[in-house]
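User: For my dataset I need records formatted as: sequence, then structure tokens, nothing else. Please produce one.
Assistant:
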Amino acid sequence: MRHVSAVTIRRRVVTAFLFGLIIFLVIDLRLGYVQFVIGDELYDKANESWTRDIVFEPERGLILDEKGEILAENVTAPSVVVIPRQIENPDDTAHKLAGILDISEEDALEYVTRNASSVNLHPEGRKINEEQESALRQLDLPGVYLAKDSKRHYPHGDDLSHVLGFAGIDNQGLMGLELFYDEQLSGDAGSLSYYSDAKGRRMNTLADEYTPPTDGLNLKTTINFKVQSIIERELDLAMEKYNPDGALAIAVNPKTGGVVGMSSRPNFNPENYQEVDSDIYDRNLPIWSTYEPGSTFKIITLASALEENTVDLEHDHYHDNGSIKVGGAKLRCWKSGGHGDQTYLEVVENSCNPDSSAWVRISVKKDCFRILKSSVSERKQA
């Protein structure tokens, strides 16, 4: 038997100890790196693989008139979400879903057997009605959930339709005020997070995490619904009596410039906008079309004439015989035969077209535009 010296034994022991120490330090450093450097990242990844989220849409903000009357609101309309791995009997579940949602059993079976953590039944299961909701709640099918959802409702039907616009199936604004203020009205979605095992089955031993949605802001307009109702009624009467191609009306508060009523014909129901031609809902005629300013512009031309001292309201006269030719066109007075001899102050009082054209011709054209631009600038600053 070969004799091993004590020195050799000590060297081997020290070598083994150092080798073990190095391995321990490497493992310790690795554990420290995992724990303190990438720990949060790994935790998030693990948590993501364990959890499933059901999204809850926020309530879209209301649209109100100046008195608080609701012009656009939300009504409850939940959406169906299925978790395929939690469904115990796919064929039976598909059969029952098909009968409630009015879809084929083949389509329903494809939804409940899809290889995904969760499946939204779109569009058949989006924003279902009260009868469908009640039927699903009574069945209480494993793996089938009702996510809180809502759809847009316009309580006054087609009134103010072009101004309000409408929202799509995802409650996104598509036209009118709904589109222009979509970011403010939309809000932020919430969610229900639950833990599941490797097979996607819910782990009831761990608590769910609920993040509530943040509802959108309400929008208060300058519309006065009493005035709006009168406009709608009169436009309906005009359409019935005269059968025109179209009609429109605007009511404005002269002190603030705020629009208190606006409507046009033909109109539509915002909840069923798909049923009408896009030419009807794409154009809000009062602001889309171009119109001559008419008598409202007379104050600008009068101001120009007065500033240039080309007209004396008290002493200068004009004889109105009922019409005047301007640029090859014949402008007529609203009064048959005209107003006869008038001072320019009476021209303003009578809103006489031929006489108003006369003071425009004796005024400096560029001053009219200068005064108009100055008026617009002062209005913006105010």
